């Protein structure tokens, strides 16, 4: 199968030019101008952007959490991702206490196999760090699972103590893996949650009020300090608070390899959403929670100046009707998370590039190139270059759409951005040389996505 994309504006993290991209099989073969050769299909991309496929390094598909399971599985979730211009995800496999990492990896490989419509990798969530598990970390890095998520929150479920965190960090200094940290002080939050419930404060908004910004900032600072003592890089996931960003900025100013991502929900929504009528605040119950609206400018500045290196989604959808409703009368029983895998590229293009907050190159860098580099996918993915996987998005920068649960493809009964107009829409998507979205229609296949073996830091 060969494919020629003609006359589009090719954008990478560093370039922008009108050109033609020739795809042969799964790879990009040639980039040039006025290319003309016999091919199976030619796509005219005049007036369109030709972007590296989006890479979302933070998704939770088919994830058991809070007594239920996230509403998108690897089929519906990856199809929705493709509609939104994302061609690779890195999801999370969970080691439950007493289990091996191998078992967790195998379990999540089975969840994805035959279902994923785009390529996928896994981070490994470690909840029980024994000597045996440390050995398994080395083995997993060799098998392409080169990053590990640790939690400083959710005591009794996911939370690790500082000694275990430090040991895991040290281990990545030896095996070349990367630690991703959920940085919130779980002990403090637990006390605040119990106190609020005892006082009869049960509404969704108390989820946010019991997770103060300082609990995130303290944990972010501690995570970076532990990584500094272990002399290894660290990646802070779903950073939401300006106070936490200050910790990352301070560390980076000292030259430390501290990295962080934020997510669209923290750029476009705010704690005002918890005031929506009735139980609707539950739509936004996620951890960390939405922050004051003034935070958004601080995060955009962090993205522009490279104190934040990636925008991922933390896609973790739960339906209002059967799932979020478990927390009626007790906010702590509302499953944490929100949908976002499909809306990331349009939201960030519209709210970031069109407003001048970030450049078009920075948009590509934040949504594709930089996560690919941090997580061992580059240069196979994350750019448009000869030899790279043909993961390409043809994006219409002028088309406007209204985000709505009625037209989006995520398997969840609400959308946090309902009614929001965005300009900048994914039109056609190519995943390893195969067209999966053709002018807004899904033409891919569940199971066509492949497990991506990622590289270690060396
Ligand atoms: O609320 C969230 N973020 N749910 C997903 C789990 C996590 O901590 O990332
Ligand atoms: Zn096995
Ligand atoms: Zn987390
Ligand atoms: Zn998450």
Automatic annotation (TrEMBL):
GO MF terms held by the record: hydrolase activity, acting on carbon-nitrogen (but not peptide) bonds, in cyclic amides; metal ion binding
Enzyme Commission code(s) on record: 3.5.2.-
EC category: hydrolase
Post-translational modification (record): Carbamylation allows a single lysine to coordinate two divalent metal cations.
Annotated positions of the N6-carboxylysine modification: 149
GO cellular component terms, semicolon-separated: cytosol
InterPro entries found in the cross-reference section: Amidohydro-rel, Hydantoinase/dihydroPyrase, Metal-dep_hydrolase_composite, Metal_Hydrolase, Metallo-dep_Hydrolases_sf
Keywords from the UniProt entry: Hydrolase, Metal-binding
Cofactor(s) this protein cannot do without: Zn(2+)
One Pfam family this sequence matches: Amidohydro_1
Domain of life: Bacteria
Gene3D superfamilies reported for this sequence: Metal-dependent hydrolases, Urease, subunit C, domain 1
SUPFAM superfamilies to which the protein is assigned, alphabetical: Composite domain of metallo-dependent hydrolases, Metallo-dependent hydrolases
Residue ranges constituting the Amidohydrolase-related domain according to the UniProt record: 49-436
Entry's family note: Belongs to the metallo-dependent hydrolases superfamily. Hydantoinase/dihydropyrimidinase family.
Name of the featured protein: D-hydantoinase
